[in-house]
Amino acid sequence: MEKIKLKLFFWMLLFCVISFTFQYVNAFAPSSDVIYNGIDVSEFQGYIDYSRVREAGIEVVYIRSSEGTSFVDPYFRMNYDNAKANGLKVGFYHYVTSRSIEEAIVEADFFVSVIEGTSPDCKLAMDFEYFNGLNNDEINQIAETFLSRVKEVSGKDVVIYSDAYNAEATFEESLAIYPIWVADYFVDEPASNGKWEYWVGFQYSDVGSIDGINGNVDLDKFTEDIFLDNTGTIVNSGNDVEPSNDINEITVIVKSGDTLSALAYQYGTTVQNIVNLNNIQNPNVIYIGQRILIRTTNNAISNSDTKVYIVKYGDTLNAIARKYNVTVQSIAIENHITNPNYIYVGQRLIIEDVRYDRHETGHSIYVVRPGDTLSQIALRYGVTVDYLVNLNSIMNPNLIYVGENLRV
Prior knowledge:
- By secondary structure, the protein is an alpha/beta fold.
- It is built from twelve helices and 18 strands.
- The chain has helices spanning 2-25, 50-55, 76-85, 101-115, 136-154, 164-169, 260-266, 271-278, 317-324, 328-334, 374-381, 385-392; strands at residues 29-30, 35-41, 60-67, 71-72, 89-95, 124-127, 158-163, 180-183, 198-199, 201-208, 217-223, 248-253, 291-296, 306-310, 348-352, 355-356, 364-367, 405-407.
- The strands form five sheets. An eight-stranded mixed barrel has the order 2-3-5-6-7-8-10-11.
- Helix 4 packs parallel to helix 5 and helix 11 (374-381) crosses helix 12.
- It starts with a helix and ends with a strand.
């Protein structure tokens, strides 16, 4: 009996040692003991109150600045200015869409041209996750070209953002010379891939809730190695790249029978591009009245009720408002502009046209968007909340939903 007990103890001890060793080998450790709470944001979060974000304990914010070779996030500069003003450490990331080494160079130059004149605190991040039509060799060549070019023309160090799967299965060990900011949800620590010994960033949730932000936001942990040694202003030493005038942005209102695949075919884009642009969680679920933003190079398409205007030198909100026959106030509210006297060259302004209800003369229809409140809509159209409540038979003024049609 004692021998049996001794054998059981031995095997249990051996099992514990093997389990501990396995966990140790597969641990993906942070690069430093000091951890900073962070978030990453884009236009999908809308206007952010960074004073409340800071009070919620967030110390670092990564901001999407751009995508591809032509798109500047419409909230990029506002996010940068407001985050900096509230003492947060700021980084930028660019969503890569290149399909060749040549495109990667152009895209890197565009990224740096967008953030020129800013002073980031964190390494410049490459978000390369759209691989459709590329093999692994092509993916890694594009990634290396983009990263090295950004570092060359910006004078700043870079970091790779990747989910845990692609860090292991797609990106080659040669890219491990660049630090990694890894995404892995529902775990306490990201899964090891054997290429990177440490992480400098860990995105652990995409459904976070932070005071000062409407809706979900990505939550991150960062180590001190995410920060730049050189935090001076970016001076672009590459080629300036202007947004392409061939890229159109349109807003489509979903009708009965519409599908994402049909819309992608109709407007000359891909389902994945629409999903990424609109942060759609389930591509098989869209609803009537939903507003979907689409980027297309098809110049024949112009059925949108939303325009995007890129500010040029000498522009004022007054002049832009007159051009589109709207009010300064409506543009300011639509774009969360706190000071109507301050707009900047390259800023993208959303210009919302009023669509008239064919069935009820004298009223227009407003489609509720993420982050909208009745008070904001009332202010936009110069009416009262009570007026909207009575006109639309709203039972609860604090409850309106995205896609809802309101008479104004």
